[in-house]
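seq/struct pair 1
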Amino acid sequence: MSDKNKAILEAANAAIAQGNYEEFLSFCTDDTQWTLVGDKTLQGKEAVRQWMATEYVKPPLNIVANLIAEGDFVTALGDLTIKDEEGKATHYSYCDVWCFRGGKMVELKAFVIKTKVKDESSNAA
């Protein structure tokens, strides 16, 4: 089961990278719950859809360093870059713990930390 869940998460992440948020949501249960630790909890697919519409103005760049799966859980560790409407990038490191039910993502606990990187505009001539 855990290898199947890893493959599902990889497919879901590929959909996000392409900006296909509805395809991503097809991998989630209708009652999915996302806990963004220290921030908020999103209840249900519609709440996630609305959050993605404001947070992922442009498809994020997600670099997954590790995927660890056991039973109904898959943990993803990596780095994320999100650009706003003006193209300004914000960088994060994260650890996502996904719980699966019936081949779909039912719960997420996301530990996300904003990271500092060298200012990309400082090298402009």
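seq/struct pair 2
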Amino acid sequence: MIRQATPDDTDAILDIWLLASLQAHDFIPAAFWWQQQEKMRARYLPRAQIWVCERHSEVQGFVALVDEYLAALFVRPDCQQNGIGRALLDMAKHQRRRLLLKVFCENDIAVNFYRQQGFAITAESTDPTTGEPELHMNYRAGVVQHDCCPSG
């Protein structure tokens, strides 16, 4: 079941974010993610609209939107490959006709997932906090998109 998050979900959301970040971003030192937890709790989560996927009375994933920006889409590592990420992204697409996101270039699984879900690469940049290269991706409802720059 997908539902809007409540304050009671905050600890579960932070746990999912940390576990999934450590798994998906193993090219960034683990200490970085541990150090970001309090910023997530105090600064980022309160600004976002968040939906969670709850199965068996347990939060297994979440999506966070700030206006048209897809700020986060994470699924607990032991719950991945079960359609949760796609269902959460579909919820976000129903909420907004346009979505923007940034994803680390080295996170091939996420880049491929977003491309399969209709996102196109629109630009590349360097993340200021990690120094890692990232892709900017864009989704528009009802529009077939093509990447602006070659991937590889």
